[in-house]
Amino acid sequence: AASIRSPHLSRRDRTRRLDAKLIELGLGERRDAVVGSPEKKLLSGGERKRLNIGLDMIGMSDVYLFDEPTSGLSSKDSEHVMEIIRGMAHNKIIIVTIHQPSSKIFQMFHKAILLDKGGRLVFFGTPSDMLRYFAEAEHQHQFGAELGACPSCGTTRPEFIFDVLETPLRDLSGDVIYEENSRGQLVAARRYSPEFWRDKYEAFRLIQDVKQVSLRKEAAAPLPVAPVEKKRLPLRWHDEWTQFRTLLRRAFISKLRNRANLVITIGVSPVLALLIATILRYSESGEYDFASAYHIPTFLFLGLIVAMFLGLTNSADDIIRDRAVLQRERNVSVRLSYYVISKTLTLGVFALIQCVLFVLIGNYVLQIRGMFWIYLGIMLMTAMGGVSLGLLISSLVADPKTAANIVPLVLIPQIIMGGALIKYEDMNRNLALLYALSHWFTEHPSKEQEKKMGSKLEVPFVCQFIAMRWSYEEMIVAQAKLNPLTQRQDRTQREIDRIVAKRDQTPIDRRRLEDLKETLALLSGLEAKSPHALDHYLGLVDQILDRKRPFDRALFKNATGQITAEQIYVNQKVSDLISNAEMEQSDYRRGNRPNVFFGAQKRYFGIKVGVFAFNTTVLIISTLGLLTLLHWILRKQLEVRRS
Known about the structure:
Layout: H1 2-5, H2 11-24, H3 45-57, E1 63-67, H4 75-87, E2 93-97, H5 103-106, E3 112-116, E4 120-125, H6 127-141, E5 149-150, E6 155-156, H7 159-165, E7 178-180, E8 186-188, H8 194-211, H9 237-257, H10 259-279, H11 296-315, H12 318-330, H13 336-366, H14 372-396, H15 400-416, H16 433-441, H17 447-453, H18 467-481, H19 484-500, H20 507-524, E9 527-528, H21 531-545, E10 563-564, H22 565-569, H23 572-585, E11 601-604, E12 607-610, H24 611-642
Parallel strand pairs: 1-2
Antiparallel strand pairs: 3-4, 5-6, 7-8, 9-10, 11-12
């Protein structure tokens, strides 16, 4: 709090100032104590009140507003709190709302405003003037209330004011008359209404103003001063960095402080990875191997669901817990963008740890090799999408239980329309906008027209707004195209095509072409005795592709064994999904190449885009868009609260 309110001070000066304020507040002995929460209180009520006052005392404000600072405190704690507030009043404006103050507290105020029901002003002046005013009203109207002051002992009784103000109306027998209020409840009728006291005070103030009118000639009004243009203060990067660093540190400490929740947060990811991978470890051949593993696409989809689920649950109540602090610090010019960024980075670090554990354990159990960083990147982007959604939910609701109930409403559509549980070709085709419009204008389309309308593998329009659809597609295509074997095969083939396309080939190009053909043939049937040996041979292939050495068959003379590269790097189920998409895209009966699910290439507005670049861009932009919307919502909420 001190770093945020006084970022211009050095760390040493802030520490000195904090120590002095804690001693002044009587909290020096509790310097290292944890404040706690409303559910788990570690400080007493008086200590919490004094600490809240101290948070505002750190800043350099000229006006302070305290709302019932003594509520719920003992008389001694109330006096201590009010003495601290009174000590702040030097060259500052202090406004305090208070109900039923004691005699000692009442006399601490320089001025007092008394508001009746409906916010009607019934007195403004010093406490002694207020007592005198209502004492005169009591004698004038003979309310029968006891006097509010004791001249002999020098004490006052502020309750006397309320006794006069709310004197009940009685009948001839002396019984109190009751009336029904706006809620239908019976309450004691007042002898004089709030309007009566307002009019009485206005008449009293008018008389006082008339008495104080000066008979001297009024001085001529001064000439108006030309308005001074407000100069924008220069941006102080040190202060900005101090504020951002403090918010980031606070966000991390908030997550690390709850040890039990931290253990659950970190531990749930490896448990889910082990559970899912163990259940899905199945091959049609009986003995498990990655090439014939039946559930690899399912594992990839469930991994993305877990990433989004963890991101949602980690962030769904963060802003709810911070709302009171956020409101307080918004009044001291804390940048809301720094708060959003610090929250996102903190939750992103925990999401990264969870994704790392999930990928490590899941890939180990299912024998997925060479895909760690690619899986981690796609899962992290999905988790960050869940984090941004969770923060958005947290900003829109006021109760953690409500936020927890909304999480399934967000997650279930991701599961249903993500493209794995229900294939898009088996989904209601009316969800596809173009398909529905075509059938709307064509009552009975022919088979040829239906073929030209689009592919069954096209993603329905509604599903385009589902983040899981983009993550899952990118994950499947990455497994098929970016595994260690296929990636090198595609790279070799691209270079062969480039050389063949040349009109004038030099002798160097022809030798290079022969090396590439030999390399491609080698990769197609690469064998070894162990996965480690396969990695060694792939490293030699990289050197050939990087032109660090020519192709030499002698380097691979021992490349034989029971393990093939396709067996440990290429999954048949994933390859089938990609093959179906490529066949659908290359169907000559369609006028153009449709953008099908699992297609490695996309075409938008005549521009050809790779699936990795496009899907990654969509995921990042959607996350940034949600965070921007979150910033706007928080800013509007805080503006409403401040008004």
